[in-house]
């Protein structure tokens, strides 16, 4: 596929090289169907060639020199040699097209992404002016030029270094780490959407702990996700051996280990695990005689989570789902040693809604105690709860809990028109359904009329 595209560019007198991530991934033995190329053809010329080669072409990135196309299962992006950089205060790069692949490679983020395979000059030629192959072997993240120059060109590269540490399990060169700390404030000029996308890639990586740790240690997290480094200041009353920050990273890892219940990697559960205790710093209180408490930290945490994810421009559904899980993550612990009534089980299912399995995963992951007996007891108690839920699900269709009477029946019985009183009646019937289980229409009518008579007398 790459060779046929190269032939199309060569026929028109242009050079084409496979570049960046695909070259890196090919060396690592995991080349996919998304290929990046660089060329000396200007964007409009690339578009013309791609239209003759690809089944579909799009040019949303043409102002930045990139034209994309798809042929079969392969998607390609072709970008004109570039030498752009960021202005000191700008959120967008100043695009300038270059005239050599060597100059193009020198402006790339890291040496492991600054390798190319030239395809139009006879036999394929491997181009590696910055020893990226050696850094791949060393599992080292380094910049082609000085890290200060690289991060000035595009400050988002500071986050990308953390992302590659997470995705590839690589270490970051000492001079790169120092520059990340020194220049972390430059992240402020990057749009929230680009920051969000990099953060998402870190969180969804095989080892998010590595990237998050880098963000915290370099000071970047204080600017983009300040709630996380603040957790280092808190000691969890249930986990005296570790701070809440360490507990949080462990919960994230344990949630990932349970993701098969959600069908695979899941952004909502990972964000919920990361944010579940962010309310603790604001709710910390000293207990007489020693110790601390964090009463209602789940409520405060849900609010902080909404605010942060909204600032990072996450979509509304993700924000709501993550905040809901944060708000509910302590619900299981509110029922002592498992003395759950049917009513409590119904409310648990009703409040979690479509996120019930997510809540199962988060609650189980939130147990990080080193006390083996305590951990086994908690797991056993929660297993019992899940079994209770399964039984009631089958008996009562808990996921479809509704009052035993509908609005029309309520208005007919109480001789009401649509009004707030009808809503109050429906709320009463729903609470009755949650408390007593399915009663049937006849018994529900009796209970409704009793409630209505008492209301009229009060």
UniProtKB/TrEMBL annotation:
Question: Which keywords annotate this record?
Answer: ATP-binding, Magnesium, Metal-binding, Nucleotide-binding, Nucleotidyltransferase, RNA repair, RNA-binding, Transferase, tRNA processing
Q: Does the keyword rRNA processing apply?
A: no
The record's section on Gene3D superfamilies has: Beta Polymerase, domain 2 (3.30.460.10), cca-adding enzyme, domain 2 (1.10.3090.10)
Note the InterPro entries from the entry: HD/PDEase_dom, HD_domain, HDIG_dom, NT_sf, PolA_pol_head_dom, PolyA_RNA-bd, tRNA_adenylyltransferase, tRNA_CCA-adding_enzyme
| Single GO BP term | tRNA processing
Q: Does the keyword Metal-binding apply?
A: yes
The HD/PDEase domain extends over: 240-408
Q: Name one GO molecular function term.
A: RNA binding
State its cofactor: Mg(2+)
**Protein name in UniProt:** Unannotated protein
Q: Whose protein is this, by species?
A: freshwater metagenome
What does UniProt list as this organism's lineage? unclassified sequences, metagenomes, ecological metagenomes
């Amino acid at each position: 596929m790459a060779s046929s595209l190269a032939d199309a560019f060569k026929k028109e007198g242009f050079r084409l090289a496979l570049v960046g991530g695909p070259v890196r991934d090919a060396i690592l033995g995991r080349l996919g169907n998304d290929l990046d190329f660089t060329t000396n053809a200007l964007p409009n010329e690339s578009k013309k060639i791609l239209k003759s080669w690809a089944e579909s072409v799009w040019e949303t990135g043409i102002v930045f020199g990139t034209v994309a196309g798809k042929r079969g299962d392969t998607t390609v992006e072709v970008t004109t040699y570039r030498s752009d950089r960021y202005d000191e205060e700008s959120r967008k790069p100043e695009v300038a097209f270059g005239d050599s692949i060597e100059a193009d490679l020198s402006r790339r983020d890291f040496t492991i992404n600054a390798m190319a395979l030239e395809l139009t000059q006879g036999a394929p030629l491997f181009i590696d002016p910055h020893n990226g192959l050696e850094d791949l072997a060393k599992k080292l993240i380094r910049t082609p030029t000085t890290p200060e120059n690289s991060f000035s060109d595009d400050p988002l590269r500071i986050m990308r270094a953390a992302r590659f540490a997470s995705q590839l399990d690589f270490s970051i060169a000492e001079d790169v780490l120092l520059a990340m700390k020194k220049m972390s404030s430059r992240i402020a000029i990057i749009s929230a959407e680009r920051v969000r996308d990099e953060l998402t890639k870190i969180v969804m990586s095989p080892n998010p702990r590595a990237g998050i740790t880098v963000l915290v240690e370099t000071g970047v997290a204080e600017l983009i996700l300040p709630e996380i480094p603040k957790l280092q200041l808190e000691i969890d009353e249930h986990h005296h051996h570790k701070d809440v920050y360490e507990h949080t990273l462990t919960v994230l890892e344990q949630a990932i280990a349970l993701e098969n219940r959600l069908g695979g990697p899941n952004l909502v559960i990972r964000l919920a695990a990361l944010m579940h205790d962010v309310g603790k710093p604001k709710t910390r209180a000293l207990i007489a005689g020693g110790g601390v408490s964090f009463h209602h930290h789940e409520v405060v945490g849900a609010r902080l989570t909404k605010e942060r994810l909204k600032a990072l421009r996450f979509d509304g559904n993700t924000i709501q789902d993550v905040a809901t899980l944060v708000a509910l993550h302590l619900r299981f612990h509110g029922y002592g040693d498992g003395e759950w009534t049917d009513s409590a089980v119904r409310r648990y299912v009703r409040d979690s809604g479509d996120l019930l399995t997510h809540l199962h995963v988060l609650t189980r992951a939130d147990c990080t105690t080193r006390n083996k007996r305590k951990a086994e007891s908690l797991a056993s108690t929660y297993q019992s709860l899940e079994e209770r839920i399964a039984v009631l699900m089958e008996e009562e269709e808990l996921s479809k809990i509704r009052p035993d009477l509908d609005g029309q029946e309520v208005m007919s019985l109480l001789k009401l028109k649509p009004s707030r009183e009808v809503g109050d009646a429906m709320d009463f019937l729903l609470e009755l359904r949650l408390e007593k289980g399915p009663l049937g229409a006849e018994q529900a009518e009796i209970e409704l009329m009793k409630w209505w008579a008492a209301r009229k007398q009060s």
